[in-house]
Amino acid sequence: MRPIALRGPRTPKKLSMQPTLIVADLIAAALQRHGVDLIFGQSIPSSLILACEDIGIRQLVYRTENAGGAMADAYARVSGRIGVVTSQNGPAATLLVASLGEALKSSIPVLALVQEIPTSTLDRNGFQEIDHFKLFSGVTKWVRRLSSSDRVDDYMDMAITAATSGRPGPVVLLLPMDMLHAPATALEHRRIQLGNYPLDRTLPNIQSLKRAAQLLSKANNPVIVAGGGVHLSAAHDALASFQERFGIPVGTTVMGKGVVDENHPLSLGVLGNIMGHNSVGKHFQSLMNESDLVILVATRTAQNGTDSWRMISQGKTFIHIDIDGEEIGRNYESVRLAGDARETLTALATELDLLPKGPRFKKRNALEARIADARAAYQVETADVVTSDAGPVRPERVMAEVINILTTDMIVTADASYSSVWVASYLRALKPGMRFLAPRGLAGLGCGLPFALGAQCAFPTSKVLCFSGDGGFGHVWSEMETAVRERLPVILTVLNNQVLGFQKDAEDERHGRHTDACYFAPVDHAAIARAVGCLGIRVEKGSDYAKALQVALNHDGPVVIDVITDPSAFPPLTIFDDRLEKVRADRAARTSKQPSSH
Ligand SMILES: Cc1ncc(C[n+]2csc(CCOP(=O)(O)OP(=O)(O)O)c2C)c(N)n1
Ligand SMILES: [Mg+2]
User: Fold this and answer.
1) Are 408 and 432 a contacting pair, CB within 8 Å?
2) Ligand number with the minimum distance to the CA of 515
3) Boundary of a domain, candidates 376, 402, 433
4) 118 and 35 housed in the same domain
5) How far apart, in whole angstroms, are the C-alpha atoms of residue 75 and residue 77?
6) Ligand 1 nearest-atom number relative to CA 520
7) 284 C-alpha to center of ligand 1: Å?
8) Are 168 and 317 found together in one domain?
9) What's the CA gap between 470 and 417, in Å, rounded?
10) pLDDT tens-digit profile of 312-328?
């Protein structure tokens, strides 16, 4: 899929037509040189936005900065291009922190162009001044202030290089208001385009590649664990070919979901901390235990992706491919393959082809049969919930209906909390490279809808499906108006269980009880959606969701399907296995013994 522009650009105004060039014009020109044709903004810095529109760069107007940052993040995730968000200084800038933090932890190249108060008022308690360097230092790779009108290209190139090179990530360029308006001279000589990532495709040294190939050739039960960096490197086809040619099973993290076809006979689906009850993954823990060699591909071996580092025990042989050498060996001592995932997998395959086939090849049929058996067992275990017609609706039933309509060109996004887990464990990627976006960097609520809007901007003709809990959706209701105004026809399903589900269950699991904050008053999200011009549909029974989905798919515009879901349903998080059901049963028993107040 290649991203295409949403609406045609406005009639471009040539730089030379303007009477006086200002710094804002040069910034806009630099953005254009780097391939940027869309920025997420809300009018500020005004001179910059006007300069952008003058040369055909479109502004997609968000309602809140935290959503705007998440839109730029999702746009970058799916397009392979840098996402650009602009904001005002002070209060607006503070709202970018959450989304930049997510982008940092998920390694997404986002450029935030943030206005600053005029230089003459700096450090004088000027209106809405805050120390932006301190504010952004913990959530970015790079923060600088443009302080000279003849260094625009230097700073723009530095910022974009910092975002798209090495391990990608968010950067901030601070733009004092007086600097934006300062007269400038156009320097025409730069041609370089740095806005696509990965900027540099590096390779590990050949000795390390040969050593890794030797180990792999001799391994009895190798397994691959792939992370989100495979998507960032567009290494999905290289990985899928590695899986098929060398007969190695592939499991992924949530961030890595979709890097291989999850229906491939050697795909294990998403592993980590979602290998709990009713998951296919729980059947694969034994396979992980038996593995003698683990290839970690572009994963930061984080807590959730490894089930608190329990899923893969130490003492095995590890090969770790990652663009960021600092991630290699962080949690598992490994043969170091520091390089771009796509190039490294391709080079490793070339080395492996030179070596004897090794013991694993004889086991392929048995391995595929074992994986097929696990899938069959999972089907039996989940049969009740995925077919339940009842209300309140089981989220598993919702996912089963989505599977029926899912096609390879769709993009799925999920909010934090249970939505991410329902999507990751119950939907299946239909081809290598299919995208399922979830905010697993920081797992902050309120990302699902803006992720859908950002992804839709990159692929206007793809169907974008979004799933969000009612709590998470409450952070970003206002962006429904953005969807209507900007004509972004996303389909949002709200899993409306009227509780902060994970919060409540986690408190029960840890403390045996929970606080009052976990309960909401009933909210009619379909009515809110209709109030801003979306199509709103309410679903109260499992048997009605498929119909609603069909209506949504045929509708020309954004749709909110408010599904009243079962508050007792919880997804396959390993932390809840056994304990949560027991806590609930104990509490029910205690409540039934309490004397009636009447
Ligand atoms: C911005 C933010 N605030 C708080 C949390 C803590 N938190 C994690 S899950 C959760 C509950 C989410 O409820 P909801 O969105 O309704 O989803 P559900 O679990 O009910 O499906 C909370 C409060 C968070 N992850 N992010
Ligand atoms: Mg909820």
Assistant:
1) no
2) 1
3) 376
4) yes
5) 6
6) 16
7) 28
8) no
9) 10
10) 999 999 999 999 999 99
Write out residues with Cβ below 6 Å of ligand 1.
416-419, 443-445, 469-472, 495, 497, 499-503
Query: Which residue owns the Cα nearest ligand 1 atom 10?
Result: 503
Closest C-alpha to 107, from 428, 327, 343: 327
pLDDT in tens, 451-498: 999 999 999 999 999 999 999 999 999 999 999 999 999 999 999 999
Which one of the ligands is nearest to 101 CA?
A: 1
Q: Residues 372, 387: one domain?
A: no
- Provide the CA 585 distance to its chain's centre, in angstroms: 36
Which of 503, 562, 564 maximizes ligand 1 atoms within 8 Å of its Cβ, making it the mutation to test the pocket? 503
Same domain, 540 and 581: yes
How close is the Cα of 504 to the center of ligand 2, in Å? 9
Distance in Å, CA 416 to ligand 1 centroid? 7
Pairing of strands 464-469, 491-496: parallel
Neighbours of ion ligand 2 (CB under 5 A): 469-471, 497, 501
In-domain check, residue 122: yes
Give pLDDT < 50 ranges for the chain. Answer: 1-12, 16-17, 596-598
Q: Is residue 557 part of a domain?
A: yes
Residues 315 and 409 in one domain: no
Ligand of minimum distance to the alpha carbon of 505: 1
For ligand 1, atom 19: residue with the closest CA: 501
pLDDT at 586: 78
Res 594: pLDDT: 62
The reply to whether 598 falls in a domain is: no
Query: How many CB atoms sit inside 10 A of residue 8's CB?
Result: 8
**Domain enclosing residue 309, as ranges:** 206-376
Cα(225) to centroid(ligand 1), Å: 27
The answer to whether residues 239 and 230 touch, using CB atoms and an 8 Å cutoff, is yes
Specify the pLDDT at position 313. 93
Rounded CA gap, 122 and 113, in Å? Answer: 18
pLDDT at residue 592, as a whole number = 74
Q: Which atom of ligand 1 is nearest to the CA of 497?
A: 20
Domain boundary, last residue among 357, 376, 395:
376
Q: Which among 25, 79, 73 has a CA at the least distance from the CA of 53?
A: 25
Regarding whether 154 and 66 lie in a shared domain, the answer is: yes
Nearest 5°: CA angle at 74, between 70 and 75?
115
Q: Is 29 part of a structural domain of the chain?
A: yes
Q: Are residues 142 and 229 in the same domain?
A: no
- What's 394's domain CATH number? 3.40.50.970
Domain tally for the chain?
3
Which atom of ligand 1 is nearest to 496's Cα? Answer: 16
Instruction: Supply the residue whose CA is at minimum distance from atom 17 of ligand 1.
Output: 469
Q: How many angstroms separate the CA atoms of 404 and 425, rounded?
A: 16
**555 and 411 in one domain?**
yes
